[in-house]
Design a protein that fits this description.
The structure is a single chain. Helix content is about 45%, strand content about 10%. By secondary structure, the chain is of the alpha/beta class. It has a five-stranded parallel beta sheet. It has a five-stranded parallel beta sheet with strand order 3-6-9-12-14. Helix 3 packs across helix 9, helix 4 packs across helix 5 and helix 8 runs antiparallel to helix 9. It is globular and about 85 Å long. The two termini are about 55 Å apart.
Amino acid sequence: MMKRSEQNKECKDEIKTAKHARTEIPGIVNELVSTCNKGGCFDHVSAEPIPYREAIIDILRHSARILYPGYFIRTRLDQTNLEYYLGQEVTAFYEILSEQIIVALRHDCIRQNLACIKCEGLGQTITVEFLKSLSGLRELLAKDIHAAYDGDPAAKGYDEIIFSYPGIWAIMVYRLAHQLYRQGVPLIPRIMTEYAHSHTGIDIHPGAHIDESFFIDHGTGVVIGETASIGKRVRIYQGVTLGALSLSKADCKILRNKKRHPSIKDDVILYANATILGGQTVVGARSVIGGNVWLTHSVPPDTEVFIEKQDLIFGEKKFKKQAVKKNFS
């Protein structure tokens, strides 16, 4: 057994070691500070704030409570308290959204060394215009939910779709982000859609144009690029990519603000893992693109595109016979 005096000495030695280790911290901090001062690394060390990611995520939660009243709250909602509820939600939403938009505008202005655009007033104007768009967004999202119900026989009802379908959440976030994108808000729309991407596996750039009654079934692995255009009543399945052709660094610079992603016309169905690439590629109305198809050229209306069926080989499964020793003793 170790004597108490020996135990005390061991504890004191450990404390000395710990104190010595902590003396290394100031040197480490100085080294990190020096990397901020000399450039080459990424940081935002400035008196000017930048958009706060967690606040933008909170904006999406507020949006869901406004766009789907009664679905994402613990308390009961009826006609008695509906006006009070929406008044509270919209007021809180205005405060948090206007603050983040103003910060995003100011940050973009300073980063690009632009002439003053009076960020405070412009941010508040943009926020009010965005709030005015919410009624129209509700109607648009209602058509997306109807499309999900009509396109999925597994759906038991609209509540199930709103609560549990990742495609509906991703589309909601996209439509909010797209509205802000159209209004010229920097950075925030992309933070929104990338948050939805991380939670649903569905990657929709806020710059894409998507018309009404859009349905993403299952959804994992779907990618829709910035300049993609999707018409009415389009249905797509998991793993579908509406992307750009691979470009060199020089080509990326030239095509940065030009159309690089395909156009999908009305009533098209894109089955799982179909890949459609290129800004000149157009899939005509009412066409069907089969699973695993790789497409880099246009398809006329009313066309079916499928990969030729591969030969399947059926053979008898052979089992290895093993000797089994039995002990009857």
